[in-house]
């Protein structure tokens, strides 16, 4: 059994075959040295979120994009937070992720949501993920596998965050 810290990774895709992309990303992630899968949520079909930061053509592209498939993986890792982030970005790059604009459609998106109870605020690494508490497409699958986990910055469980959320976007189980 792998020693290490529990981390949670958000997984999403809305290009190509999103379910297949998400499953492939999980396989790649959990085959890396220093990472083992503890639990994987169901896969959820989720309505895209349009960022308030997008304007003009980018906003139109976001409003008309395909729905996402999202999930959350609980992994045990011996990697540091930065090493884990690099591994996630490497998987995204190898799977063809293109970052054209904020919130753009993507083949795969891997977000480091939580790394134990650590709070990290650096230029290119923020943990817990700064938007996770605002997103039903993150909290729904996270609550499925770890509703009791406490958000290290807020001191509230994932279930408590979800219960307080006022997100009207559709999030429904797509595949178990």
Walk me through what this model shows.
The protein has 176 residues and is α+β, with helices and mostly antiparallel strands. It has 5 helices and 8 strands, in the order βαββαβαβββααβ. The strands form 2 sheets. Strands 1, 2, 3, 4, 5 and 8 form a 6-stranded antiparallel sheet that branches. The longest helix has 14 residues, at 81-94.
Largest sheet: 6 strands, antiparallel
Overall strand count: 8
Low-confidence runs (pLDDT<50, min 5 residues)?
none
Give the integer mean of the pLDDT values: 91
Structural class: alpha+beta
Termini gap: 25 Å
Helix fraction, binned, reads 25-40%
Oligomer: single chain
Q: What is the number of helices? A: 5
- The Rg value, from CA coordinates, equals 15 Å
User: How much of the residues is beta strand, in percent?
Assistant: 25-35%
Summarize the helix and strand pattern as letters: EHEEHEHEEEHHE
The 3D shape can be described as globular
Could you give a short description of this structure?
This protein has 176 residues and is α+β, with helices and mostly antiparallel strands. It has helices spanning 18-30, 56-63, 81-94, 136-146, 158-164; strands at 5-13, 35-40, 43-46, 68-77, 109-115, 120-122, 125-127, 171-175. Strand 6 and strand 7 form a beta hairpin.
């Amino acid at each position: 059994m792998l020693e290490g810290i529990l981390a949670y990774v958000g997984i999403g895709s809305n290009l190509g075959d999103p379910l297949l992309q998400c499953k492939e990303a999980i396989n790649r992630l959990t085959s890396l040295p220093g990472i083992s899968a503890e639990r994987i949520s169901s896969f959820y079909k989720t309505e895209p979120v349009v960022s308030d930061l997008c304007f003009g053509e980018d906003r139109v592209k976001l409003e008309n994009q395909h729905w996402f498939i999202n999930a959350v993986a609980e992994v045990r890792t011996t990697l540091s937070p930065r090493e884990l982030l690099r591994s996630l970005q490497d998987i995204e790059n190898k799977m063809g992720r293109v970052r054209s604009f904020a919130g753009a459609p993507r083949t795969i998106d891997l977000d480091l949501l939580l790394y134990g109870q650590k709070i990290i605020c650096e230029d290119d690494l923020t943990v817990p993920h700064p938007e996770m508490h605002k997103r039903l497409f993150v909290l729904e699958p996270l609550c499925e596998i770890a509703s009791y986990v406490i958000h290290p910055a807020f001191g509230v469980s994932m279930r408590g965050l979800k219960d307080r959320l006022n997100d009207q976007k559709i999030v429904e189980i797509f595949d178990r």
